[in-house]
Write a structure and sequence with these properties.
The protein is an all-alpha fold and 250 residues long. It has one domain.
Length: 250
């Protein structure tokens, strides 16, 4: 926890608005995206009649959730390189670095989620009771993200081009995720791309519990947890295997 707090302090140190940027950044992004996708590209969600939401809230929730994934994955290839002083300290558990990065991303999400709920309550009233299941829906994504972060952090020490490749892939996944449009709007001929996206199930499930008042599908949830655990275990295995050579490469 101390490492997460220290990282947060370093991130906003010297900024006049400080912590406020954690709320302002996603809000500004939502403002731009909402204008572009609702007025220019005419993106529309099929909202159930009794759903307490609108396009802006749907968009904001998707950006907040995707932000956890993108922040962790984008930083992962340089995590070890940014903490060279820890590499030669035998007693320091380097594997905790991706966990710390995720802690910072979750703190950002928590602040943004508070703003999202405040806007929703002010506009539509209390959210559905199923909203309390959001952590259950997000957990598989956190496992998957952590596993990928471990693997990318280890490989990034040996391949410095990885950070640039990951940046492009994150942008690609952003626009191939049901954030700016519903999954049903994706062209049928390319629907398999959406199903391969690890963020699709999480984003769709989060909207079900936060806005539609529906329980997540147990079959989809079980598959997501299985996939998340496998990626987390595999990613940690890659990190542990490559960890022994960090000091020689750096």
């Amino acid at each position: 926890m101390r490492l997460v707090i220290r990282e947060w302090q370093a991130k906003y140190r010297g900024a006049y608005l400080g912590l406020a940027w954690a709320i302002l950044t996603p809000l500004l992004m939502v403002g731009v995206y909402a204008f572009v996708f609702s007025n220019i590209f005419k993106s529309r969600w099929t909202v159930p009649p009794d759903a307490q939401t609108n396009f802006v809230l749907l968009l904001y929730s998707g950006i907040l959730i995707f932000g956890i994934f993108s922040e962790c994955i984008s930083r992962a290839p340089t995590l070890v390189l940014e903490n060279v002083t820890y590499v030669k300290k035998v007693v320091f558990p380097l594997a905790i670095l991706p966990v710390v990065a995720m802690g910072g991303a979750l703190f950002n999400f928590a602040l943004g989620f508070g703003v999202l709920q405040a806007i929703g309550v002010a506009t539509f009233g209390l959210p559905p009771l199923t909203t309390i299941l959001l952590p259950v829906v997000l957990a598989p994504m956190l496992l998957f993200t952590l596993g990928m972060s471990w693997a990318l952090a280890a490989i990034g020490v040996y391949n410095r081009d990885l950070r640039h490749i990951v940046g492009v892939l994150v942008s690609l996944i952003l626009f191939l995720s049901p954030i700016f449009y519903p999954a049903s709007a994706f062209p049928l001929g390319y629907a398999h791309l959406l199903s391969l996206n690890p963020m699709t199930a999480v984003l769709e499930g989060s909207k079900s519990v936060m806005f539609w008042g529906e329980l997540p599908k147990l079959s989809d949830l079980a598959f997501s947890y299985l996939w998340g655990f496998l990626v987390a275990i595999g990613g940690y295995g890659v990190f542990a295997r490559l960890r022994v050579g960090f000091a020689d490469v750096i």
